[in-house]
Amino acid sequence: MDVLPVTFESEEVAGTYAAELPWPVLLDPERELYVEYGLERGSFWQIWGPASWWGFIKLLFSGHKLHWPTDDVYQLGGDVLIDPEGRVRLHYVSRNPMDRPSLDALLEQVEQLPVG
How many CA atoms does the CB half-sphere of 51 hold within 13 Å? Predict the structure, then answer.
């Protein structure tokens, strides 16, 4: 299975977390893929509103270490899962920085993909 994480951040920043991954990280500084998949920049309320603060608090209390943002804090993320034939099987656009499918949910989707 090939996994290709994509980020708009600088090569230096991407390299810090790419070192922790078993896959290469693709850079999209012009955010072409972000635009193609509707991953827009969030509003002030989406980024700094109660949903985000509540998510940060839950992460802190569960033992996660939060990191100061390194680039555009308003860029929302998402998850796109493309099967070996090039069909989009999952297209999730985040509503705020804390809104992401769980890793278990993503892996469940991956397990349903045909082997290519």
Answer: 13
Mean pLDDT, residues 93-108? 88
CB 5 within 8 A of CB 25: yes
Structure confidence by residue, pLDDT tens digits, 12-27: 888 887 788 888 888 9
Nearest to 34 by CA among 3, 71, 70, 77: 77
pLDDT at 70 over 80: no
Supply angle C-alpha 3, 25, 41, rounded to 5.
100
Q: Is the pLDDT of residue 37 over 90?
A: yes
Give the residue from 110, 81, 64 showing the smallest Cα distance to 5: 81
Task: Assess contact for 88 and 80: CB atoms under 8 A.
Answer: yes
Domain ranges of the chain: 6-111
